[in-house]
User: Fold these one by one.
Assistant:
Number 1:
Amino acid sequence: MSSIVLLGSTGSIGVNTLLIAKRYNIAVEALVAGNNIDLLNAQIKEYHPEAVAIANEADRHKVNHPNVLCGTEGILSVIEASKSQTIVNALVGYAGLAPTLKATALGKRVALANKESLVVAGEFIDMSLITPIDSEHFGLWYLMNDRPISKLYITASGGAFRDWELEKMKDATFSDALKHPNWSMGNKITIDSATMTNKLFELLEAKWLFDTSSIDAVIEKKSIIHALVEFKDGSTTAHFAGVDMKLPIAFALRGEVTEEILPPTDLLGIGALEFLPIEAERYPIWNIKEHILDNPHLGVVVNAANEVAIAAFQKEQCSFFGMSDMVLAAYEKFGDVKAANIDEIIEIDKEVRHYVGSR
């Protein structure tokens, strides 16, 4: 019986991963979660993992399991001790990098929903061990099929403020930014969707995964088309699918899926589709798109600055556009850095956080 270790079990990707694991009789060797202990306990009761890891030592006594580890070291220990050859990494943010590095160093396959791993350290990760759990990258992979390509496209919803007047966006609050028009996700990814940082990260991911800089993004408001591939013969093919992560998860865990995971797309129900450009006036982070695709090692700078900026926005220490100002200032300040190894990545990350946090 195949088995997995699931990092980020209580988030939406984690919950959907468990549904797929149950459907295909895949054992769950270990669960890793953050602060949602009630849901974690329900998962422990249903899936009987051999080990559990949580973010905070203070929550250990609340977890209904005899083998509970804590913090980053606990997560890494769980991965190291596991027999599973597949690690599903659905952790949020920079915290997901160390587990990806640990798993790949052990030769384990990583079904990766943690964008930041590739954004921060794609240069130092063995791509042959990475399978993305992401509707956009799954869509690209599904379409490419070893045919010669000229350009890859991913789509963006446009985020919470895509239809707001620019003047009004200057006063947007953290809770405003969490009102995504198409789906419910965690706080960080929803804020990143509103600033378009999420899409910049996905372009960087695609660069590492598919070894190309010939990639762009456009807004498709209905989030029905997730990816398009332009082939060298001049034709373009699109990947239509409902907004449901179970399809890429099923492929990541099974390799090939032949039965129905999603209901087929209702073309008449969709009606018209519209593609719109991503404009830097509304999404200032887009000003660095071309430069960062040519200099992907600077992903560590953008990620660190972005995490500090989101925390500042949440605490009302900066405006919505202030987040992008902080990230772009750090990008300019640290434009000459280039890590030669993972230790230097960690050092740059600390320096950028200190710089942005002390401004």
Note: The chain has 16 helices and twelve strands.
Number 2:
Amino acid sequence: MVYAGILAAGIGSRMHRQDLPKQFLPLGEKPLIINTLEQFYVNPNIDKIIVVAPHDWHQFTEDMISKSDTMDTDVLVISGGLNKTMSVKLIVDYIEKNYGIGDDDILVTHDAVRPFVTQRIINENITAAREYGIAGTVVLTNDTIVASTQKDYITAVPKKSEMFAEQTPQTYRLKDLDSIFVQAEKENDVLESETELARLCIKQGRKIKMVRGDVSNMKIINPYDLEVANALLAEKKL
């Protein structure tokens, strides 16, 4: 079984909208999250989709999805956690409780606000996770990255060839992911404060296979990003 976990539990404060979380804002003629979900509806490798939504927007999310064409894909909504790591754990817990976790089960986790993910990226994530256990989507950075261990000064300039920007999907063999959370609990790692699941994987000595992403697989964070995304969508329709 291949599950897609769509991470939509954030509020999106940088969008500066008090009335509506950014994943529900319109992109083209549909809500942003629906544009994202459609990339998983059309993928024949995806068996079931679990959307994690803000608790206060759970019913709203269910209603929005029910009004869209899910293309006969099995979609359900659960309430999310305080951060991405907690939301992914809630997905794993839900799957374990309701379906059980099989040896070959895969979970593809993806930001609800990355609507331009390609079928190639999704499929390569699934293939890599099956072979290596964990896969992460990345792109080479165009800019030189600088680091600072002090507030006002550059303290390091890593080699540009070694710097990548993280995207999603991040994809896991479910049994491996479940064991990561079990180990984290044994080591008293506080998931509420661990915002990056990949960092937790590396801490436990896990290797993450890189899948090359695409610059078009952008994350919509602020009003400017939404303007760019609408322009990209309009261009795709030409």
Note: Residues 2-236 form a domain with the Spore Coat Polysaccharide Biosynthesis Protein SpsA; Chain A fold (CATH 3.90.550.10).
Number 3:
Amino acid sequence: MKVTAVVILNWNGAALLRRFLPSVIEHSRHEATIWVVDNASTDESIKILKNEFPEVQILQLDKNYGFAGGYNRALKEISADYYVLLNSDVEVTPGWLSPILRQFEKQPNLGACQPIIRSWQHKEAFEYAGAAGGFIDYLGYPFCRGRIFDTLEFDEGQYNTPLEIFWATGAAFFVRSEVYHACGGFDEEFFAHMEEIDLCWRMKNRGWKILCEPKSIVYHVGGGTLNQLSPRKTFLNFRNNLNLLLKNLPGNRLIPILFLRMVLDGIAALAFLFQSNGHLHFWAVLKAHLHFYKGIIIHFKKRKEAKPNWVSQIYQRSILWDYHLKKRNKFSQLPLHYFSS
């Protein structure tokens, strides 16, 4: 019988554990073991886990290794056939595990999968971090079925078909353990944000398939660690996006796409100056580029391991162009024949 482990990474999330762990336990206990990995919290997280949730397995790390490093260290210690990496601010629903585990059993080439991600605050709307499955355009900008940039759709059943996607969200990331370890896990240089996109690209480079299974639904609060307005998040997103491209783009596309992204990032940095507290985000973009240049040799060396390739489900148009100029703010409005296959 296949073993499934639901693994929740926690850092000073005592209130979130109290609120959301009960649903995870109630709807997972018969199909999976439940682990909480603690990134050296300084709040009462460990005390709460031991006193209020004795059925949960606890793994304590010696310091905060971030999302990527925390999971990499934890999953080396957890034996299972399937890992379910679940954010601490996610409410799960009855039967959320079964549809995805069935997909793994039916499709031996399925490496990772995600459920539908809805907003916990607005239960009928998709949530930013994953919605109904992730994609990127040819310039590396990520978007989702149900969410393009900051435009979120309501879930009216329009994406109720299982679909092969480019990336599965780290908020509820189902992955075969053998695939996770064979691909080297998350890149710890990312620390947080876009590490799941990088891992999914590396998985697809090796021929594994990524899927969204709409029969499984969870509700995500979002912004539990860094909210959308955080300059730190701006820094991580801009830096990690450039690292993502450097590691995974095939050689014939690498230089022209990186050059164009440099130009577009410069425009974005200037645009921040016209927003409230925009100077903080302007400097975050500049800092992101400086860190990228500093680490360019390290990430270039990782290309051999990543096996760079132009893989399926990359949107071969500019999502910036479609969204801002063509006013296509829904996934269903995109010309689907431009998705590579």
Note: The first strand starts at residue 4 and ends at 10.
Number 4:
Amino acid sequence: MSKDINQSRHLSTLDMMRGIASLSVCFFHLTFNNSFYGNFLPDGDILKQIGRFGWLGVQMFFVISGFIIPYTLFHNNYHIKNFFRFLGKRWLRIEPPYIASLFLLVFLGIFYSRIWHYEYNINWEQLFLHFFYLPQFFGVQWLNEIFWTLAIEFQYYLFMAFAFPLFVNRNKWVRYLTLIAFASIHFVFPENRILTSFSSLFLAGIIVFMQKVKLLNMIEAIVMICICSLYAYFQFSKDSLFISIVLLMSALMILLLKADPWWGKFTGKISYSLYLTHGVIGHNVLLFSMYIPFIRDHYFMRIIILFLGIAASMIFAWVFYRIIERPAQNLSKKISYS
């Protein structure tokens, strides 16, 4: 029974971390990276300076995925023969909300073209490439700039579906060599469009997974995580220090922290929906508020609108989760590996 309780607390820690990561990205886009809608906050503003680090939530997501995918495969006794079932489960889990957010963007494009009287043509090739996470390979722009991370995540699913047996091989040297190979392949394929450019982040999550299922002892895991953090410092050419710190903190939180805050379950539950839709909802709250002189000309009113934008994003994400994401989750759970 104590094992079940620990596992529950551990997964609650992941919920909390997902919530932190998605809120960080949301705060980043609504404070620091909102130039598309005008300079909502003045340069030098304290919230804007804090918000500039919110993009690191993406790095936290990668570490979480690095852990949770092999962790789930292990506890479901995954084998290569289950490849298509695994992909089917992941597709049902992530694709319906993703596709819904795509059509939401298209709908808003059509809606705005009507009220502001400009021509809007749907780029069907661009839309088609989005379904398979391929725009970056064909020089096509993403409809939403955050979608590139989903492409990296999907590449990780494909990689882990094939490589998982090596990470849990009975021979420890096979496991060690697989870890080294995954880390090293970045030097062969250093492009930002593919998984290998973010290998240190996913690798940290994999190491935590291996410790949780007793394929590594605690000392080995902590040493390897520190090496991953150092590796990230050299792997990334920009903001590498911040990325290495987030990698280290995220991995150690999954490894050591047992937390179940009251807000963690809710924010973790809506984290994917919030990640997909905050740019649409929050940015539009900011955009339309700038047409109101009383808000546009008063700094404190802008601050109020900023937090209203975050609140509106969270409320919409909750509705989106209930209507679209949760049914997709339930369908995904119906596929078993047995």
Note: The chain has 14 helices and no strands.
